[in-house]
């Protein structure tokens, strides 16, 4: 752990229980590191790519089936939880001035066993997430060509394998892929949402009478859809890859979450107005392709399919990129097998990239979209609640945001369990 410039010795949480983290000021804590390749644009793209990548393409149909006409409210509440959690992650990461995320925060506090459990849980969650992205990529690609189910699985494997190869080339190549993919999908998604809003038809947001849900569905939808906001916290693992890390991570987290939340809300309103909520649910694996076809015929179908391919590819890229670095750091601490700490000549933790990608391929083949989404959402709600709790306990600046996000994440996890078990 490094000392933050101008702040004296490093913070050791274990020696200072409940220590107060001085409020971050850009002018005081900016560093002079020049080795990083991620500036604000690259970091913002990595975070947006990690969230939107599987988010709206994988979960829109699922959340509408749960929340109905209130799906946009589910995305809004989820975005508020994510924003508070992003505040906690950025403050804690800047205070320790080193990568690590929830795993690193717990080790600093002296909770080594819990940190070990969390890092394994996180890796499992990220593998599930990459599997969702791969599954979605395969579904859209196969649908575009009218190919059979086996072709969708083959496309899933190919996408994960190719992006793993990009990651093995190094951080600079991964960042270039992310910037191109993020802007391409944002333009297409916002264009689709704009067309839906132009054809204003609020009656199409409702499910058929026998499938209708009430306002409580919006709360259940938060739990089901929360995997769509996984991704911003990956920046805490990429801290050493950034230019001027304290400034970059704080700005990139806030702006990426804001951009993602706005995009989700607009698409959750616009897409059903084009295709109808019932059709979005019926074709949940390729829901936005249906909306694109309803808007612009074959052209809309092709554009949305292209966006889905770019989107899921960028999400796989961002998630594998950061998770391999998380595993590498934990391996250096002796919490994971030493092989995960091995790096290639270009500094890439190649064993982590290969293992994470291989496990995700298996799950993409054997898993269903709803089970993968719900499992990943539950994992991240619990981990984010934990990080918010740490931030509140450590008295970060504006700790009320961390406390509110902690309580909301716990409540959403409980509602998700009740929904999955038939309690609501």
From TrEMBL:
- Keyword annotations of the record: Cell membrane, Membrane, Transmembrane, Transmembrane helix
As for subcellular location, the record says: Cell membrane
Show the GO MF annotations. Answer: transmembrane transporter activity
Q: Which InterPro entries match?
A: AA/rel_permease1, APC_superfamily
**Pfam families documented for this protein:** AA_permease_2
A GO cellular component annotated for this chain's UniProt record is: plasma membrane
- Residues spanning the membrane: 37-64, 70-89, 117-141, 147-169, 176-200, 212-232, 253-274, 294-316, 351-369, 375-392, 404-422
- Predominant location: membrane
Q: How does it sit in the membrane?
A: Multi-pass membrane protein
Q: Sorted alphabetically, which PANTHER family does this protein's record hold?
A: AMINO ACID TRANSPORTER-RELATED, INNER MEMBRANE TRANSPORT PROTEIN YBAT
What protein name is recorded for this chain? Answer: Amino acid permease
Protein species of origin? Croceicoccus mobilis
